[in-house]
Amino acid sequence: MSNRPRLIRHGALEDDLWRLHDTTLTTLPPDEAYWMVTLDCWKVNQDSMSQRIHSVAILVPAHADSKDFLPIGVSSINALAIAFIAIDFPNYTDGRGFSLAQILRTQLGWLGELRAVGDVLIDTIHYLARCGFDSFLVKEGHDPELALQSFETFTVHYQKSYLKPVKINS
Amino acid sequence: MYIYDEIDQQLVEQRVAQFKDQTARFLTGKLSEEEFRVLRLQNGLYIQRHAPMLRVAIPYGMLVSKQLRMLAYVARRWDKGYGHFSTRQNMQFNWPRLEDVPEILAKLATVQMHAIQTSGNCIRNTTTDHFAGLAPDEIINPLVWCEIIRQWSMLHPEFAFLPRKFKIAVSGALTDRAAVGVHDIGLQAVEVDGVLGFRVWVGGGLGRTPIVGKLIKPFVAWSDLLTYLQATLRVYNLHGRRDNKYKARIKILVKDLTPEVFGQQVDEQWQLIKDGPDKVSEEYVNEVSSRFVWPKYDTSLIENDDSIILQAAGNLKFERWLRTNVHDHKVTGYASVTVSLKATGVPPGDIKADQMEAIADISEKYGFGELRVSHEQNLILADVRRQSLYSLWLELDILKLATPNIGYITNIIACPGGDYCSLANAVSIPVAAAIQERFDDLDFVYEIGELDLNLSGCINSCGHHHVGHIGILGVDKAGEEWYQITIGGRQNGGVNIDTNQTQIRGGGAAIGRVIGPSFAREQIPDVIYRLIQTYLRLRDSDAERFIDVVERLGIGRFKEDVYSDPILLKAPLNTEVIDV
Question: DSSP string spanning B368-388?
């Protein structure tokens, strides 16, 4: 069960190869694929990390301030150096990540991959997709195949400024 | 009534299907209890003392006869033959089985009803004036705006998991009957320079920390309503406290930031989205409005109450009912009529399936089949021809639904209390009944005049005790039930919406003040009686209401009288003021 791929990406399931760089280390991760760093680490080392061959992913905690994404004087995120942004849901009932996603998508110009990680349920994926997430690491114990179907839970919506969920990342 | 279009209907049906799947996964162990808890709450399902409790939304209190018949059907088939109107324009069923809930919801969906967001930390059912669309003093028809807010808030992807529950109330009239001052967001219709819009109060609420809302924005034009709500909710969702559920309501955030800073943050966010896709267009308002079926009034009627006056002469019961339960209507020759669910001995807001069906029939016979549910837990017959009032009264009286006490002391607002609710510290229903029995002389009740008496079985304040002219709160002290009394609360200040007054804000709402140590259950009727005696002695005329006297003189005299009353001193007092 637990070895089944549970990352939803481009409308299909795949293995999650990404690992989080240990925040207690003073060194940065080696320039190789699949390294994820915390937002704090990224903020401090942005310049050097932007020079890497292998882009890092950034893990954003639920309590992050949207202003933390941008250095002063910069109005949109430097997308080239970032593989994807992951927003953590410490508990699925903590809805801050939904608003962070909206701000990243509609105000900070983040067009790259936006991943929901942490307490990601079959039952929250539909809302997550509407708020701009396009990849989802489904929590253990939730059937990833069922999660894939949740894009179609609702086929109609009221709120005009939010996306219609689509399985395929366009 | 608003008539669903295909999208409205599809959404409700898809939510039923989703919940059916969630229930099935829970029952087969694929969804943990903790995971299911919040998901079921978002669909109005609590696990209660005796059985699950299902809370069905009556969006903005508007109900039509076929919906009431469906509620009767649900009550009979899945409950014990009755339902309970809450103080937030919802109906609660206390006895359904969890396994049956998906089927109940599917049935409700056939008459455009649902339980979506009637609980949980999300945007709840938007409430309004129980005379919405009927009152003579309306600036706008709040039903249209409530429907617009219903659509916007239903299954909102960004605001499904807020720090805490979120309640919006809308008042479209000069007199605030929606209690906008004690909601997370209160919207009061205003017209400025020929443009309609809303005054926005934020951070009001009852519960543990009762606060009257602060005026965050004196005017938001109608076209900006949804984007302004979105900005407000976004600031709250990001910054509201999540570490302590007692400090998680928006009122705490507004207080911590100060209303000025909170307002600025909302404004900054709003500037970024105000001209986005959720800006309300005239076309959309017209579209929503056109989906309502508005009554086809007979406009040839004239105001002539001669026959009613004749019928009332010598018929004291009818005359009293006319005085208290019949209300002015915007259309000449019509009235709105309150069907009292406050007969002595019946739990406030409870209604039997037979009564629901009878009222559904009556609403068609005497009107256009339209009703409203009031936050005072009564039903309103929307459009009754004044000429038919006498025969209507005869029918209601037989059904025991004509108790002439609307606006008076025995029209008690009360939560279900400890008899049903697992949150309650104390019972409510027997206390309400005991007070009603104590004040069973109607002449005396009228002599006392207008008085709101509200009763909650615990600090969650579902019985709105904080805004009762007299409020009663059940508290727990070492496993015993005690009752704390407040006076001076009010849900509005009539047309007085002067924001310069510190006491009267948010449409004039005020929070009652505790008079002192709490009392045992059996003392309560005597305490209330004592308060009334003091009031009658101190009022300067019949026109000065209980609440006016409290406002004029403060609580001191009342306090002295109650705590020096020899009858009350005979029984032991709980000497501490219990900190809730």
Answer: SSEEEE-TTS-EEEEEEEGGG
